[in-house]
Amino acid sequence: MEHDTIAAISTPIGEGAIAIVRLSGEQAIAIADSVYRGRKPLAEVGSHTIHYGKIYDEEVERDVEEVMVSVMRTPKTFTREDVVEINCHGGLMSVNRVLELILSKGARLAEPGEFTKRAFLNGRIDLSQAEAVMDMIRAKTDKAMNVAMGQMEGRLSQLVQKLRQMLLEMIAHVEVNIDYPEYDAEEVTHQLLIKQSETIKDEIEKLLITSKQGKILREGIATAIIGRPNVGKSSLLNSLVHENKAIVTDIPGTTRDIIEEYVNVRGVPLQLVDTAGIRETEDIVERIGVERSRKVLKEADLILFLLNNNEPLSVEDKGLFDAIKGMNAIIIINKTDLESHIDLDEVNTYAEGRPVITTSLLKEEGIDQLEEAIASLFYETGIEANDLTYVSNVRHISLLKQAKQAIGDAMLSIEEGLPIDMAQIDIRRTWEILGEIVGDTVSDSLIDQLFSQFCLGK
Ligand code: GDP
Ligand code: ZN
């Protein structure tokens, strides 16, 4: 337990009419009481209750704010410490004034992520759950949010703990075998260890398979809209943004940038790349040059390539087909309201099996089919985001890879008939690596580094 009391503004600055100053620590209630005037002192109210009152500033000798104050006593709070939340009505000015008063009464300004860090240190959540809080704050789509919430609820932790339990049993079995070689036949132990190692390796592999989709859910599918000038790129961008506006969630106390370039197509998050280019000069090749636009293309996960139904395929079109060879792409023949001069067979040849959709963005036709095509690219596997334990955190992915390697090493030395304590070392290492995911075996410096990435007030 850390003993000082921390405070910070925990609502998005400048957003909404209400802002919250949050305090946590042994003195949270006493410090709040020193500036609060209500029907009763907060020290006398029940836990998990909310109270109307005023904030009094001694220096100017008057009430400066009207507030609603929530009091939550340890241990049933997010940090497991006493927590007070002061809801201020006014905007930034008033919340800053309240925070300043609180700090002048002995609270310390919280470091980024310190509330969550305390929740972790006090055993309220494990490390993967704490990281989920961070992911939630950054999540750009509903599905990414679901993944983070699942993790926050401890889904990944439970799975990892189950695997660690199995590893512990294996370790125990080997210990017995080393101490009492007569206890059972070595052969039996070997078979048992191989079987259990295989199960563990399978489970880790399954988790790793979800990680690619996890990353996509977290960051969005990097999508580039390309095509010759005037073919309809801006129109497509506008209709995608218009129909699938970026999501704003209202988890209390989280800040979210609303980035228009994130759109959510049937639950699939698209991060539209270089849309500024489309808006400003109408042509990314012209704006950033051929070399860089090739790089933008290279980094895209998905290309939306527009063609003009009203004209035959041009040299430029064929050049673009060349540039996106082998990439994930959807070919869109736009302007179907105009007379057709494009050779469909030729387009299909160049498409090389990738979906070809026809649209009239002007008449808002074909957009459904386009969205369908985007969604089916993502759901090829038929997996729905909510059903699975997804791994999307880079640190977790890297640890899972190491764990897979370690358990593989263990299997190898068992199969090669090396002394059993060799395998034991690798089994133990697997157990330790998995422990780092949930924070059982991590160093203090890693913890500091992880939590310092949080936003202030979380
Ligand atoms: P960009 O240069 O590729 O970004 O193309 P724009 O989206 O700016 O569109 C160029 C012109 O084509 C505009 O005048 C649009 O209104 C028009 N346009 C876009 N889609 C269609 C369509 O489906 N049919 C017709 N007839 N015109 C369209
Ligand atoms: Zn345009």
UniProtKB/TrEMBL annotation:
Main location: cytoplasm
UniProt lineage: Bacteria, Bacillati, Bacillota, Bacilli, Bacillales
Enzyme Commission number(s) from the entry: 3.6.-.-
A Gene Ontology BP annotation from the UniProt entry: tRNA methylation
Residues holding (6S)-5-formyl-5,6,7,8-tetrahydrofolate: R22, E85, R124, K458
Binding site for K(+): N230, T249, I251, T254
Residues annotated for Mg(2+) binding in this entry: S234, T255
Keyword Transmembrane found: no
GO cellular component: cytosol
Residues the entry annotates as binding GTP: 230-235, 249-255, 274-277
Cofactor note: Binds 1 potassium ion per subunit.
Record keywords, A-Z: Cytoplasm, GTP-binding, Hydrolase, Magnesium, Metal-binding, Nucleotide-binding, Potassium, tRNA processing
Name this polypeptide is given: tRNA modification GTPase MnmE
Pfam families the record matches: MMR_HSR1 (PF01926), MnmE_helical (PF12631), TrmE_N (PF10396)
Family indicated by similarity: Belongs to the TRAFAC class TrmE-Era-EngA-EngB-Septin-like GTPase superfamily. TrmE GTPase family.
Self-association state and partner proteins as the record states: Homodimer. Heterotetramer of two MnmE and two MnmG subunits.
Organism: Pullulanibacillus camelliae
Cofactor: K(+)
Domain TrmE-type G: 220-379
MF (Gene Ontology): GTP binding; GTPase activity; identical protein binding; metal ion binding
Record carries keyword GTP-binding: yes
Record-linked InterPro entries: G_TrmE (IPR031168), GTP-bd (IPR006073), GTP-bd_TrmE_N (IPR018948), GTPase_MnmE (IPR004520), MnmE_dom2 (IPR027368), MnmE_helical (IPR025867), P-loop_NTPase (IPR027417), Small_GTP-bd (IPR005225)
Functional description taken from the UniProt entry: Exhibits a very high intrinsic GTPase hydrolysis rate. Involved in the addition of a carboxymethylaminomethyl (cmnm) group at the wobble position (U34) of certain tRNAs, forming tRNA-cmnm(5)s(2)U34.
EC category: hydrolase
Subcellular location: Cytoplasm
